[in-house]
């Protein structure tokens, strides 16, 4: 079938609207009609580089939609089901899934190319096969996914905010709760309060943190962070480090979550200054260029104060466990989702959406495929 999607043809390019061919689902594959897609900074990273991947590629990895058809052997979903398209597949049987770390599932090996685990390329452009970013390609109206990338959700849940469950909400929430190990009474600093950082604030609230310091140079984002539970908000990490020590009688933060749009060595070093004894620095942010050195820390301080550096992919969440749980929290009024969506965009407004994101005017932009 034919569909419309946004494609990057190479590094430094712009998202280009094209007509794509989408294949029929084979064994273990699912054809999804996308309804919404979140505009994540990772899709901007893809514009700068795609290490281990290839161009052209269909953008978008944070999506929700409705299953149109399934291939032989598919059991997790059926036609008509509403799904969140997880950007990290989970087979359920590999070493990582079996040990509760499905965010590291072996099937994720091809997320940079977008080739499905079956070896299928989900799209064709001008006769050439191509993949969808993170095996999702949510910037296309229709996409072919692996069954392992589909999370069925209740049909009465809104698909627009459900799309954020594909990445930003669990990534931020889990960075504070799981990767950071926030405990009741802790002091938490969240550096960068866009779509991921705002949810790290919410995670810290749920984990029982006493002090939550939101750090962002943009006043709008600081104010939003306070509206979802931050107890303090400052413009820079220097101010955050001073405040964390003041709040803890000289110690510093128990957990620091680095959730800026694009990380760099100096930013990591400044974030680490907020840590107190035994504190954990959670590296959630990514660099535009994957090979860049983004960690520059003073080793003696790490040793003497027993600081812990923890990477966080998808917030160390388990998609099939945590997405339904977080949606339940939202339905119970215990997790803010609606206000995370600042603006909505049509497919031909995609570049404007990313411009608004870069200007700090959105918490999350949302691509609307159809009303």
TrEMBL record:
This is NDMA-dependent alcohol dehydrogenase. Residues 12-367 form the Enoyl reductase (ER) domain. PROSITE patterns: ADH_ZINC. Signal peptide: none annotated. Belongs to the zinc-containing alcohol dehydrogenase family. CDD domains: Zn_ADH_class_III. It comes from the Bacteria. It holds the Pfam family ADH_N. It comes from Klenkia terrae. Keywords: Metal-binding, Oxidoreductase, Zinc. Gene3D superfamilies: Medium-chain alcohol dehydrogenases, catalytic domain, NAD(P)-binding Rossmann-like Domain.
